[in-house]
Design brief:
The protein has one domain: NAD(P)-binding Rossmann-like Domain (Rossmann fold), CATH 3.40.50. The termini are far apart. It is globular, with a radius of gyration of 18 Å. β4, α4 and β5 form a beta-alpha-beta unit. It has 9 helices and 7 strands, in the order βαβαβαβαβαβαβααα. 44% of the residues lie in helices and 14% in strands. The chain has a 7-stranded parallel β-sheet, sandwiched between helices. The chain is α/β, with parallel strands linked by helices. Bound molecules: NADP nicotinamide-adenine-dinucleotide phosphate (NAP). NADP nicotinamide-adenine-dinucleotide phosphate (NAP) binds next to α1, β2 and β5.
Length: 257
């Protein structure tokens, strides 16, 4: 698809991939709007990227999504691309009884229910556009579990499944449905996993990752596998037990109970 002169909404655009997407898409001549929860990070993104539009919005809250929809479509009626990028990944020992019943599902609300609700809210609007796209950011951990982040993997597998169904259901519309299957990269999301026993994965540079994603979008590659993601895909097919064993080494002590 043509990545010029679009109006693009990116959830979680104040850090990591989202911020890099915003920078690159602005450079390509698009109108770019980002969301996030932290007003300080939103102000800093706006200050650093000339022309960037920001909205404070928590994707885990359906009321905030409804409010965002009203504001964005009123102010930017040409909105034609939605990038569901906001996400969080937590190290969780399932033996930890201090985690409450609401807190344990927090990532599901942000990483899975968030994108599903964003699509539900914005779909009627996107259908009216001459050309439109939805990009859902999943992960190599949608393909194989990372046991020390058990809820995260479940959300990304769920989002991958949903994205495939969405693509089938939208096949007779002008909306293209993309999935970015991202490998581990150098962003704040990985901070708590650095220096963890058994975690010695090479982290991809987010600049390189977003570059691959943009080339994939331009070539209409509906599933984009940057860096090691393609290797994870292959391993998940030919040696699933082996790759699960490797990923189970990270945080093995914490998970032993
Ligand atoms: N980094 C990796 O290794 C990796 C690998 C595969 C997939 N991914 C996926 O890539 C996406 C981006 O991750 P990243 O590495 O760039 O993470 P990041 O640097 O931590 O950035 C996350 C962004 O999402 C926002 N965010 C978090 N929770 C939110 C919520 N409830 N509502 C709205 N915004 C929210 C954050 O801002 P606020 O905190 O201010 O809200 C921030 O702008 C995520 O979906 C992640 O799962 C990352």
């Amino acid at each position: 698809m043509d990545l010029k002169n679009n109006t693009i909404l990116i959830t979680g655009g104040t850090s990591g991939f989202g911020l890099e997407f915003a920078k690159r898409l602005l450079e390509l001549g698009n109108t770019v709007i980002v969301t996030g929860r932290d007003p300080v990070k939103l102000a800093s993104a706006k200050k650093n990227l000339a022309g960037l539009h920001t909205f404070q919005s928590d994707v885990s809250d359906p009321n905030e999504i409804a409010e965002l929809y009203e504001k964005v479509t009123k102010q930017f009626p040409q909105l034609n691309i939605l990038i569901n990028n906001a996400g969080e990944m937590r190290k969780i020992s399932l033996h930890d009884t201090s985690i409450g019943l609401s807190d344990i599902t927090r990532e599901i609300e942000t990483n899975l229910m968030g994108p599903i609700r964003m699509v539900q809210a914005f779909l009627p609007h996107l259908k009216q556009m001459k050309s439109a796209a939805i990009l859902n950011v999943t992960s190599g951990l949608a393909l194989v579990p990372f046991p020390i982040a058990p809820i995260y993997g479940a959300t990304k597998s769920g989002l991958r499944s949903y994205t495939k169904s969405l693509r089938v259901q939208l096949k007779n519309t002008k909306i293209k449905v993309f999935e970015l299957i991202a490998p581990a990269a150098k962003t704040p999301l990985n901070d708590q996993f650095h220096n963890m026993d058994g975690f010695n994965v090479k982290l991809m540079d987010p600049i390189e990752l977003v570059d691959t994603a943009i080339k994939g979008l331009e070539k209409d590659k509906f599933e984009i596998y940057p860096g090691l993601a393609r290797m994870i895909l292959m391993m998940s097919r030919i040696a699933p037990a082996f790759i699960l064993k490797q990923l189970s080494k990270a945080g093995a002590k914490e998970m032993a109970g």
